[in-house]
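Here is a protein:
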Amino acid sequence: MVTISHSILIQYQDEKAITVPSDMVMKHGEDDYMRLRPTNYAVIQLICGSSSCNASISSSRKLHELIRMRNEQLMEGHEHEDSHETLFAPQEPEASSSAKDAPLKRKKTMKILPETINIMVKGVQVQCLVHGRRPVASDLAIRIDAEQIQAVVEYMREDAIEAMQASKRKYIKKKRAQSMLSFHDVWMKGASMSMVGFNAKLVEGNTIAFAMSTDPSRRAMQIEKNKALIEQSSGHLAPINGQEGYLTIGGSHTVAYLRCIEAGLSGPAGENTTHPKSDAIWSAISEGWTWVTISSSVEEAIPLLPSFLQSSLNSTNSIQKSITELETAMLLATSFGRGMTMRQAIQHASAADVRCRSSIPAIATFVQRFAGHAGTFPILHFLSNFSKVHGRSVQIGEDMMSLIAGMDFKNPSNMFPMVRTAIWTTLLGCPSASIKDGIARNIVKSDIEKLRSASVIAKTIETESLLLDSWSLHQKQPSQHMDNCFGHLCIRRILHVLNKAPSASIENKTYESLGAIVACFAKEVHEPPSQQKASSASASTDKVMDLISAKPHRVAMLQNSHMSLYTNTKDHGALVFQLVDIQDDGATMRHQGLHDKLIEVHVPLDALKKWRSTKTPMPKACDVAMQSRCLPQSHLAFQEEHQRAMVIVALHAAYEKHACGHASIAFGQHPPSLFTSCPCKKKAIRLVPMGTIAKHKGKEPTKAIQINAFGHQWTITAPKQNSMFEDDKLPLVPFFWVRPAPSDEEANMAWSVIKQDDMSIPMLVNEDSIATHAVLLHASAEPEAMKEPPKKKAKSKAKN
């Protein structure tokens, strides 16, 4: 079968040509028409010059204007259709009392619409196809003509781009069930906003704020919470200026990011806030936009209103990230605290976000059982405070949440609430490199299940006891400092028990023992937060310097701080020099070659600009001790290869010495077996394993077939064999064809050991005579229980 098809490509100016999908092309007569469907990827690509997944230009005013023009032209000329003369006048009804009173019924006539109409777009007549059962509600279909398409694109482009951006961008919130915002999220979302450009029309009238309380004590509490949030951000959120009057629940991250730009701050990952003064973001900072504001008395009368509005905004405005499991837990806790039942709280939270909805029953279980006191839920507040400081908001996934809340540790007297909290803390502190599609992946499902395994459960119980004691200390003096200390303890202990790599931790560090973790926790608890900040500040490279009174050599070092190793090819060729000293009269450079004398050069300060930094290292000679250890005759790698070769030679010699002829044994299949082909006398069959030799690397002794030599175990791995007796390129090794006996009484082959060049090599030997066609079966004893060689035993008896 031969199929021939054609497609239509349209290119606007120098932009990328787009292929019009077949379902967007309509045929009428000899002309083709393209449907301008506002959600079609190719249509948006043509109109806007670019497109993205799930984009739409449905809100474009210019598109609606074109459709309105088409509909007006469509209906023009049919308004007076009822007044036109008809060929046959309707027959008058007979006069009667009832007929006189009744209104005359007029027969409906079907309107005949034109097949195409023309509309004017930028001085060009654009031909539109009339199609569908309801033409006024159908897609705008324009004739595929270069001039007409160009006129439509130029007319719609600017407005369509704005409509597309509005369809992609949604809004973000600040307080989700009293959890407040994370400064990591502020900068992550702010960077995305700066990348696409700020558009005030998108936030105009769509952001919501509650007026701050008129009650002095409550107002002071609101201010203190925001001050604490700013203090926890380590300088990545703008300070309060005292003029604030509202608390936001919609547009919070936008406001926080704009305030950071105004204050000239930088982000936690070094994000820059530099924007040109012509940027629309500065107009928003100076002029603001229209907000929806709600009185504080409304919040006092309806306490659940803020969380309800947040849930609604989360369902419609969240594009950067969905509401997380922790935020949902805070929302559930707020609902429980205000008298809702479990079922009502779940229904209330389910309206917030689809992505997290399947985890809500597990989240509710955690809140009910493991969140601490029902009135304050201290565990949830600890998790929230820790996550805001040490990482951006992340999902943990339905499977992980179900395990955290519902895993059975198979201990009747302990449900391990602190271990579950520590697992969640570890996921919240996930490094950015381990976050995949917004979900933390530094620990996985198999890691959590490992905590209840027989080999780890003792450490899990020890961890629960340690965390309970530490939590009691935390509750005696709760603070952000204690939240940080306890959170780090949870992460360190969980990763230590699971034996995870340093990259799974935000510290990127491992601890050798439980004692080291406890010692670090104790040190951090007793070290004041101010001292920790001072130590981190002292380690920073940003120092204040007094250049007014600085001496010349200090100024020279500041301007040439990169100079560690450098070259001056014009004066010294390829030689590499090191800066060893600098004074007001100049700098001293030193070069030390492998066999050359020491070269020192004095360089005036004003001549330092001639020198260029280099990554080429200084010539270096190998240390004599290192050289002696690494030569082939003494290096461990070559010694091991030599030992392996000697083991292989000894094994081959032992096999050749005790090899059985083909006349005494035979191979069989289905099932695979080795049997005798003739009567065999006692100790007539001696089978030595032949295979691949490798040094055993593990610390524990191996149970595999092995040779003991040079103080190590060398495993013997069976080669791939000619099991179907069809390929003579593959070997047949009799040793590996002997099957284990169902019981030791049925075994006719016993384990033994032979000595070959001072090496102990395993062997199977028949200790009794065997009849013809008997299947060879070995005893179940492990190779380490092998007996001394029969030959040596006979000699010892003879001596006696």
The chain has five domains: 8-76+112-168, 171-320, 325-537, 569-621, 636-799. Residues 146-168 form the longest helix (23 residues). The CA atoms of residues 471 and 486 lie 7 Å apart. The radius of gyration is 42 Å.
